[in-house]
Design a protein that fits this description.
Largest sheet: 9 strands, parallel
Strand order of the largest sheet: 3-5-7-9-13-15-17-19-24
Order of helices and strands: EEEEEEEEEEEEEEEEEHEEEEEEE
Structural class: mainly beta
Strand content: 25-35%
Distance between the termini: 34 Å
Number of helices: 1
Number of strands: 24
Radius of gyration: 19 Å
Length: 245
């Protein structure tokens, strides 16, 4: 059970979340867990679970089994970071397959977090926040002002973004742009078609024929420490305002 969590098993695998607590973890049975108006983290574990976030910005972790993840109000995330295999999730079509996503039904979900394996994550017409995690990930925001999130240089180097468009952003805020400094989380400070020779610089390339790319230099040696690839029909971020740093 998560710290600060309280839940009461009811008949038929139903779990009631008390108002004094925000998070709940189910069992290996077919659970129904309902949150409240705050930002809940609800985890179903195994079984065919139903997770209802209610209002608030909720994170729903269905686990294994064919789960129904209903975010309700707020900005809600379907989180597959605990999946033992890669997942395929498309918020536009409702398609879910593979890993813990197999058999899932997603309702009122805005954001996606992938697994440590090879994922395919697609958003919808709204504003989506998409994080691939580890593995080789194919990320598509679809319409809307989307944010592609990378928590480390290794995560960034495993990603292909299919449709970066005007209004989208790349979130590199969790990546230390200068690994030469100790105990300081530096932000990237420049972008162009070449590295500056200083840590914290980004460079991009797009020729309209091959895949575009965005690379980052985090130690100032003039070599890329990560590379994010972009599809043939995708734009490439070319200015610092395209990023969350």
């Amino acid at each position: 059970m998560l710290a600060g969590t309280a839940l009461t098993p009811l008949s038929g695998g139903v779990l009631e979340l008390f108002s004094a607590f925000e998070n709940a973890v189910g069992s290996n049975q077919n659970d129904t867990i309902t949150g409240d108006n705050r930002n809940n983290v609800l985890a179903g574990l195994n079984g065919n679970d139903t997770l209802n976030g209610g209002n608030g910005n909720d994170t729903l972790v269905g686990g294994a089994g064919g789960d129904t993840l209903n975010g309700g109000g707020g900005i809600d995330t379907a989180d597959y970071s605990t999946s033992g295999a890669g997942v395929r999730v498309n918020l536009t079509t409702g398609f879910t397959a593979d890993g813990d996503a197999a058999g899932d039904t997603l309702i009122a979900i805005e954001n996606l977090t992938g697994s440590a394996f090879n994922d395919q994550l697609t958003g919808d017409a709204g504003a989506n926040r998409i994080q691939g995690g580890g593995g080789l990930n194919f990320l598509v925001g679809a319409a809307g002002n989307d944010i592609f999130v990378f928590k480390s240089a290794s995560e960034a180097s495993m990603a292909l973004i299919g449709d970066f468009i005007v209004g989208d952003k790349i979130d590199l805020s969790a990546i230390d742009a200068n690994t030469n400094t100790i105990g300081v989380d530096d932000a990237f400070t420049s972008i162009g078609t070449g590295f500056t020779g200083a840590a914290g610089s980004l460079r991009y390339d797009q020729d309209g024929i091959s895949l575009g790319y965005l690379q980052g230099d985090t130690n100032g040696d003039g070599l890329e420490d990560f590379t994010i690839e972009f599809g043939l029909l995708s734009d490439v971020p070319t200015q610092l305002t395209d990023f969350i740093l």
